[in-house]
Amino acid sequence: MALLVYVDDVLLASDSILEIERLKTLLDAKFTIKDLGPLKYFLSLEVARSKTSISLCQRKYILDILEDTSLTRSKHVAFPMESTLKLSSNDTNFYEDPSGYRRLIDRLFYLTLTKPDLAYSVKVLSQFLAKPAVSHHQAGIRVLSDWAGCVDTRSVTSFAIFLGNSLISWKSKKQVTVSQSFAEAEYQALATATCEIQWFFNAL
Known about the structure:
The chain is α+β, with helices and mostly antiparallel strands.
């Protein structure tokens, strides 16, 4: 049994429904509680469950950040940070709102819970919290722009299966869910193609 408390939010987890119900009864006897049912949203984390897995997403959290920074219509960039970018603590063109910069980096840090591909960029930007320059803020905005154009975009599964020189099956279709990383999208496409290949293998 695990119990997580954050202010007035309580999360219960156990492999026994009876244990959860027992603890809820005990809590309700001491406090006035409201049971919101199976976990779907907690501390800006969206939770989706299947029979075999639990998936975490921060789509709403991303949209809120984009809205706050007026980036909902910004142009999408290919990478959160250019590999050749050189940022310096000696840059004296200071950003006018250092507390705003720190808040931005804080939010990006939390976003790395489900977006590990942002971790390097956020680590670099966190070095300039004391005296952020305009260039540092621009780099932080670019990290957000990496997601601004694709937060709702579903990846496409495409494959072509040949038997000898003959094309016998092909597909190009948007995936059902929005992948949280390139790797996840690639695994989804691989799984779909593998199922198709297995079907032909059994048929032949």
